[in-house]
Amino acid sequence: MKREQWGSRVGFIMAAVGSAIGLGNIWRFPYMAYENGGGAFFIPYLFAMLSAGIPFMIMEFSLGHKMRGAAPRVFAKLGRRLEWLGWFQVLVAFVIAVYYVAVIGWSISYLGFSFSQSWGSDPNAFFFTEYLQLGDNSPSNLGNIQSHILVPVIIAWLITFSAVFSGVKGGIERASKIMMPLLFIMVIGLILRMAFLPGAIEGLNYLFKPDFSKIMDASVWSAAYGQIFFTLSVGFAIMLAYSSYLPKDSDISNNAFMTVMINCGFSILAGIMIFSILGYMADQQGVAITEVVKAGVGLAFVTIPTAINLLPAPYILGPLFFLALTVAGLSSMISIIEAVTSAVIDKTGYSRKKAATIVCGVALAVSTAFTTNGGLLLLDVVDYFMNNVGILGSCLLELLVVGWMLKGLPELKEYANRRSELMIGDWFVWCLRFISPAILLVILGTNFVGLLQ
Ligand code: PHE
Ligand code: NA
Fold first, then answer.
1. Which of 17, 23, 89 to mutate for ligand 1's pocket (most ligand atoms within 8 Å of CB)?
2. Which ligand is nearest to the CA of 24?
3. Which domain holds residue 18?
4. Which CATH number does the domain housing residue 438 bear?
């Protein structure tokens, strides 16, 4: 059977960008930058992007393009005893999928709430007590599935499923070509309104004010590299699967370059959006901005709703924000499920429709665990482990196998250069062989020590 293909270069880039841009760009990057030197963070961040992000993306695009398979097939073709690494990456993707979808479900709920701010005047109590029902946490209750969370999670599954089920070109590409422009327009619209609110400039000043003393701090560098690996969706099966559907004559390096630049550009936009709203909120509440900055779940479902309550026209800006969050999440979700589905198709020869149905069915069943009263506790533990060990470990294993065990990087460089106007030099090999593994080792080592404490 002939392998499916993307319909156009733009379509492929939209899909790859859709995977890269996710909840992390919106709720993780702004906080990272703020915490790690503000404007000065852009120096290590740019460095990480050039020395790790772009080469890693070129490597994955080349591997997927060359081997024409999802992760297990890519690694099986690289070495007969290496297929397990592909399945390990697929497992990482699967685990991420089952809790990522829960957060998208919350976001869909909040999209509904935002039209009338039904979270009320105390969004903190609303989120934890009323929505997640965390107050009701006695052991006998922990396993209760909450239907008001299950329903939006099922909606998120249905959207993801229909994209993956409908195929690379007719489903994933088509969805990405709608979702990505929509996402950019929404975020730019939000910025255009919010950056002119009182206090917004103060917020942006906090985000961008450079603290150059931080540049000498090793933890700032490891934060920058950690964010780059996380944000680009490399190292756990996704970009391998996506690039395996590229037509033969695609320009690999250029595509990789564009994907990375668009993702990182979006992160800066998201930073401007988040810090405008935080600055406005601090201004309205008469507190210092340091008291309102947050990341993650607390930012999206507590701080932002609190800020929305204070906004002019909250019934427009609120839904825009939660629709943007939902779209960013869904396009990433689609890519994770495609990584798993394409591995199953490669291995079993099942039709796409059958494979997608099985994968989504099993994953949906597992994800109901995150809609229970104990869901947030479970999510915190799994997310922490995946971010600090799973993703980075998977990236490191890939680099060790390709760069050291197989010594395959010079050949991949040639492979990419034969198919691109953008010539890459030996820096490609150096960055992936030495710099990235060394940094990953340091970050993983630090995280392990942290886990033990
Ligand atoms: N790159 C995504 C982000 O920044 C993260 C992600 C994508 C995680 C796909 C898992 C799967 O949010
Ligand atoms: Na996304």
1. 23
2. 1
3. 9-452
4. 1.10.4160
Atom 6 of ligand 1, nearest CA residue: 233
- Residue ranges lining ligand 1, Cβ < 6 Å: 19-20, 22-25, 96, 100, 230-231, 233, 332, 335-336
Reading the block at residue 261, the tokens are: 């630049």
When divided into structural domains, the chain yields a total of: 1
Q: How far is the C-alpha of 347 from the C-alpha of 357, rounded, in Å?
A: 16
| pTM of the shown model | 0.96
Report pLDDT digits (tens) over 356-410. Answer: 999 999 999 999 999 999 899 999 999 988 988 899 999 999 999 999 999 999 9
Distance CA 213, CA 148 (A): 48
Q: Which of 179, 225, 183 is nearest to 335 (CA)?
A: 179
Phi (first) and psi of residue 7, to 5 degrees: -80, -25
State in Å: Cα 177 to ligand 1 middle.
18
Find the radius of gyration of the CA atoms of the chain: 21
Domain assignment present for 293: yes
Contact yes or no for 375/149 (Cβ under 8 A): yes
